[in-house]
Amino acid sequence: MAGLLQAIPLSEIRLGVTTDEIDEDATKAAEFLNRFGVGYAEVRSLWGKYGTSQPVDKIIEARGIFDTHGIQTSVLDTAFFRGDIPADAAALDREWTLLDASMERGDLLATKVLRIFAFVPKDKNTGDASAYPRTYELLKEAARRAKARDFRLAVENLEGSYVQTGADSARLLKAIQADNFGLTW
C-alpha cells in the first residue's frame, strides 16, 4: 500500500513564505521561492521598508519581479491597527490612510488579503475588557471599508495585543461577523 502513495509536489500546495524572511530584495526572494517550487509570497517588507510604505513605483517593480518568477502574492502584511487604539481623529485618520494605501498596494500586487492587527495597548493591559467595544467598532469599520474594495482582512494574533490567544480570537470573531474578516495564526 505504501508504494501506491505519492508525495504531493510542493508546487501543488498553496504554501507561501514571507519574502523578507528570505531576503529584503524582491529579486532574491522571488528567485529562492521559484527555485524551490513555492508559488506564493506573503509580502511584508521590501528593500528595507514595509510594502505599504513603499512608493507605488517600487510596488509595481516588485510585482514585475514576482510575475517574472511565477510568484503570486497571497497576503500583503500591514501594520494597520498595530498600535494603541487611536485617541484622536488625527491618529485614526492615519490608520485609515494606511488601510487605503494597503489596499492600493494590494491591488498592484494582485492580492485581496491584508494582514492586520487588533491593537496593542501602550500600557500592555490587554485584559482591560472595557477596550473591547471600541476595538470591535473600529475593526468592523475596517472590514466595511475593505469589503467596499473587495478585500479580506486577516487579524494576526500577537503577544501584547488584544488578540493573543484562541479565546481572544473566538471572542473577536463572535463580535465581528463579516464575511471578509478572519484570522491568521
In short:
With 185 residues, the chain is α/β, with parallel strands linked by helices. The protein contains 5 helices and 8 strands. The mean pLDDT is 93.
Write the layout of secondary structure elements.
Elements: E1 16-18, H1 26-35, E2 40-43, E3 45-46, E4 49-50, H2 56-68, E5 72-77, H3 89-108, E6 113-116, H4 132-148, E7 152-156, H5 166-175, E8 181-184
Parallel strand pairs: 1-2, 2-5, 5-6, 6-7, 7-8
Antiparallel strand pairs: 3-4
Structure description:
The protein is α/β, with parallel strands linked by helices and 185 residues long. Helix content is 38%, strand content 16%. It is globular, with a radius of gyration of 18 Å. The two termini are 35 Å apart.
Quote the distance from N terminus to C terminus: 35 Å
Oligomer: single chain
In sequence order, what are the helices and strands, one letter per element?
Answer: EHEEEHEHEHEHE
Query: What number is the mean pLDDT?
Result: 93
Radius of gyration: 18 Å
Given as residue ranges, the uncertain stretches (5+ residues, pLDDT < 50) are none
Number of strands: 8
Helicity range: 25-40%
Number of distinct helices: 5
Strand order of the largest sheet: 1-2-5-6-7-8
Report the sheet with the most strands, covering strand number, pairing sense and barrel closure. Answer: 6 strands, parallel
SSE-based structural type = alpha/beta
Strand content: 15-25%
Principal-axes shape call: globular
